[in-house]
Every structure is written in C-alpha cells, then in structure tokens.
C-alpha cells in the first residue's frame, strides 16, 4: 500500500498544472479594421506569437479615431498581461500633442514591450496628375497663385500621413490643405478620382495602386528604396533628408503589468517576427521588421513623442 501511494504521488507531480492545457487566450488589440495593413500585421504576428507562447492569441479589432479607441481600451485594461495593444505612432506619439482632451495618457498608462515593424510612406498623386516626379510636383505647388493650396488626402486628423504632409509643407514652403477622410478606402477612392491632389500612404497600400496604374509614386520616406518599388527614389536621394518619417508598430501592455511578464512577452514577440516565414510575409506586405527589445522600444517611443510634438506645434494644429 505504501508503494502504491508513493507511485500515485509521483504521478501527480508529473501532471501539468491545472489549466495549463487550456490557457485563456491572449487578446491582441488592433485599432484598425480587418483587411488593413495593421490588421494583416496583427494576424500574422498573432499566429506566430501563439505558437511561440503555446497559448491562443485572439485578434480584437477596435477600429476608429486613428487607433485611439483601441489604445484607450488597453490603457484601461487590467495589468495582468492578458491584453496587449498593437500600438502605432499616431495614437501613441502624435495624439498627445494633437489632442488636448485625449482620454488616455500613453506615457503614464501604457508600458512599451517591443517594437515589431515599421512602415514607410510614399508620396503619391493620381495617375492623371501632370506631376511626373517630385521636382515637378513641388514646382507646380509653389507656382500656385496666392490662396490656392495643394489638397492632401489623409486617413484622419492627427495621423502620420496628415503630419507628414505638414512636414513636407514646412520643409518645401508649400501651402497645403489637409482633407481628412474617415476611412482609408474613401481617401484612396478620392485620390484615384483626382478629387485630391496628393497623399502620403504606406508602402503596403501604395504598391498595388501604383502597380495597377491608378496612382503615381513620387518619393518614399524610407532610408533606402523599397524592394517593392525599386524605381521610386527616397526623399533623401531627392535632396530632402529630413522627410524620413515612418509608422512604427509596437506592443504595449497596461502600466503596472509585472516587469517579468512584459520582458517575457517582449522576447517572445521579437522571436515571432524574426521567424523566417513571418519576416518574409511581413516584408511582402510592405513592412520592415525591426524586433527591438523593451528598453530600445522605450527609448524610441520617448524620442518619437518629442519629435512629433515639435512637428504638431509647428503646424499649429489642434484637434480640440
């Protein structure tokens, strides 16, 4: 009997902890609708992250307000590591300077975990535009009579594309009029139709429109030419090195999440995006894989917040 009791006790020690075989899902919140670039990123990352963590990952699309709805939801969530934000430059680094009544404080309520990718921007014009290159576009814009402005489509006030246009206007001494659209599709439709004259769109979004002959690419904000658009020069090559902005995407958890949990999640996220098949898929989707550590990501977020605050202030823009 004693031997049988000992064998049962050892068998119990060998079993996994209660609930380990059916862990509750990790919720990955993304602030954009299904089918968009950020959603593709979230689902690609989520699938691989689930394999690395050996835990289900559920994608929660909280679209609206340029990512602010999703950011607010995670900022107010329990700090237990069960809810993670796929945050981006607009709602994290730009919004605090652009909105005086922002319903969350990224610096106080969110903890950076890992930057995973970046997405550069392409200055595009309608295919029927007389501007054949960046030089021609700028010359035509400057030649406009007093009061006339270049209409720039944006995917919402306070987004990188909005302030990218403002940055170009400041650098090149142009007069622009941002035209804010609620949905990405609406902005692209207006641009293709020639209702607006230009826009900064992500590389992922620009590629099919340019290759389909609906839009013309004039320059990219990337440090080097995109392999997806090898004939499109960078702004630096064209003589505008300060037009080097991009949209970065990073994971965040609510402030107060244990450091050990955040560290582990950061390592797992970096491993996920650096997996060869994931890296290839993200690059084909127009992203540049970065995979920064938690400390590196914290430095990036602080520096970017300061940089965009200066750009917002120079533009004179205030959303409320």
Q: Which CATH class of the largest domain applies here? A: Alpha Beta
| Helix and strand sequence | HEHEHEHHEHEHEHEHEEHHEH
Shape: globular
Cα gyration radius (Å): 22 Å
| Residue share in β-strands | 15-25%
Percentage of residues assigned to helices: 40-55%
CATH-assigned fold name of the largest domain: D-Maltodextrin-Binding Protein, domain 2
Proper CATH architecture of the largest domain: 3-Layer(aba) Sandwich
Major β-sheet annotation: 10 strands, mixed
Task: Count every helix, treating DSSP H or I runs of 4 or more residues as helices.
Answer: 12
Structural domains: how many: 2
Mean pLDDT: 90
Structural class: alpha/beta
Low-pLDDT residue intervals, each spanning 5 or more residues: 1-22
CATH superfamily of the largest domain: Bordetella uptake gene, domain 1
Distance between the termini: 77 Å
Tell me the number of strands: 10
Describe the structure in brief.
This protein has 320 residues and is α/β, with parallel strands linked by helices. The protein contains twelve helices and ten strands.
